[in-house]
Amino acid sequence: MKKIILVLLTVLFTVLACNKEKTAVKNEEKAGEIKAKETAQPVQEEKNMTIYDFTVKDRKGNDVPMANFKGKVLLIVNTATGCGFTPQYEGLEKLWEEYHDKGLEILDFPCDQFGHQAPGTDDEIHQFCQMKFNTGFENFKKIEVNGENAEPLYKYLKSKKSFAGFTGEKAEFMAGFIAKQDPDYKNNAEIKWNFTKFLVNREGEVLERFESTVEPAEIADKIKGLL
To answer: Is 129 a catalytic residue?
Structure first.
């Protein structure tokens, strides 16, 4: 009789353990589904957004809705004041002087993520650009363009246009330099270095991405064709 009771108790405990395990698995699956939905929601919202849904900050920290630039052709650039590409400020200023009155806006976002080449404050960066290159376009607040703290606008830009390839005289050098930091750099959309440029048409479409090695003058005809 005792043996029968022991057998029954063993069966009972086994059934209870199995049920508990199944419940735990179901709970894990349910939690995974909820997490997947939560993760997918922002992605879906981002896909439905346009460039005009974002808000950035000027160098004083004031909100600037991207909707302010509706109907304009935009050249959006992450910049640095102590970079080998910093002389491109001169070319950017020439573009702005020639095409601003026709509808071009250059949005300059200083970024210190690459080689710590934009160490100054927002005001110091602005003063440098004014004194060195006599820039007429505005410098926005310093931002990050990669990683968890990347500016949402830049997350959007990267989702629209991935790495476009290095070109020109410095292409080989930059390819080797960036490959040491990110061997898979060709296959992801991360910003590779200072002075990466995004061209946006009057309708807010991100048309092209130009890497650091592309001089502003090389983009002139494309900008002219959009104005």
So the answer is: no
